[in-house]
């Protein structure tokens, strides 16, 4: 039995393609791919029409699945054991019949446009902060990434560090529907 779906609209991909994160965790998603009904968004993220209005036809139709590669520890126990995985999951796609928008639904820990799971990114940054205690970039990469390489260093760590503020953005429900990202107000220097 699946939990109710709580959706988080991440960002539009292209002009009319959205990425939506469901509340189903990646571990459950790997064990059993959720049905089309289980992770169907409650509304279209573009035109905001209801997915299944009572007594009417469906507005968001299943639009197939596609494979998505994810890297990193699947659970906290796997992170502590330093056993990262390389897993291919089937992600669901939907199409709005009103505005023709397509959307991709991802498990909770999978970030759009990121190969690594949330736990891998946060764990790697936490270990990187503690470099003076013996965690260098190469040992962090071996801990987090299932991909073996002969090269030293890991440019991805700097990219994650530059984008770390996006990991902690607060999502709040809006009166009209699912939660959306809130823009942060820039800090102005004191004069």
Features of this protein?
single chain, 191 residues, alpha+beta, five-stranded mixed beta sheet, two-stranded antiparallel sheet, 7 strands, elongated, disordered N terminus
Task: Describe this protein's structure.
This protein is of the alpha+beta class and 191 residues long. The protein has one domain. The protein has 5 helices and 7 strands; from the N terminus they run ββαβαββαααββ. The strands form 2 sheets. It has a 5-stranded mixed sheet with strand order 1-2-5-4-3, covered by helices on one side. The chain is elongated and about 60 Å long.
Topology diagram in text:
Layout: E1 8-12, E2 17-21, H1 26-31, E3 60-72, H2 76-80, E4 85-96, E5 102-106, H3 118-129, H4 137-144, H5 155-162, E6 171-174, E7 177-181
Parallel strand pairs: 2-5
Antiparallel strand pairs: 1-2, 3-4, 4-5, 6-7
Helix pairs in contact: 3-4
Which segments are poorly predicted (pLDDT under 50) over 5 or more consecutive residues? 1-9, 11-15, 170-185
**Proportion of beta-strand residues:** 25-35%
* Count of discrete structural domains: 1
How many helix segments? 5
The 3D shape can be described as elongated
Q: Work out the radius of gyration.
A: 19 Å
Arithmetic mean of pLDDT:
76
Measured distance between first and last alpha carbons: 57 Å
Given helix and strand content, the structural type is alpha+beta
Overall number of strands = 7
């Amino acid at each position: 039995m699946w939990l109710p779906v709580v959706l988080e609209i991440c960002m539009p991909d292209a002009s009319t393609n959205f990425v939506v994160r469901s509340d189903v965790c990646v571990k459950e998603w790997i064990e059993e791919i959720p049905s089309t009904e289980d992770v169907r968004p409650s509304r279209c993220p573009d035109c905001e029409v209801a997915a299944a209005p009572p007594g009417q036809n469906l507005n968001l139709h299943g639009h197939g699945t596609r494979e998505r590669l994810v890297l990193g520890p699947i659970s906290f126990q796997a992170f502590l054991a330093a056993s990262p995985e390389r897993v291919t999951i089937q992600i669901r796609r939907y199409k709005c019949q009103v505005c023709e928008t397509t959307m991709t639904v991802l498990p909770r820990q999978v970030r759009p446009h990121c190969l690594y799971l949330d736990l891998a990114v946060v764990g790697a940054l936490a270990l990187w902060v503690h470099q003076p205690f013996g965690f260098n970039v190469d040992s962090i990469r071996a801990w987090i990434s299932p991909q073996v390489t002969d090269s030293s260093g890991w440019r991805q760590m700097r990219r994650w560090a530059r984008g770390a503020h996006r990991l902690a953005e607060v999502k709040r429900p809006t009166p009209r529907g699912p939660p959306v990202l809130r823009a942060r107000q820039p800090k102005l220097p004191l004069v």
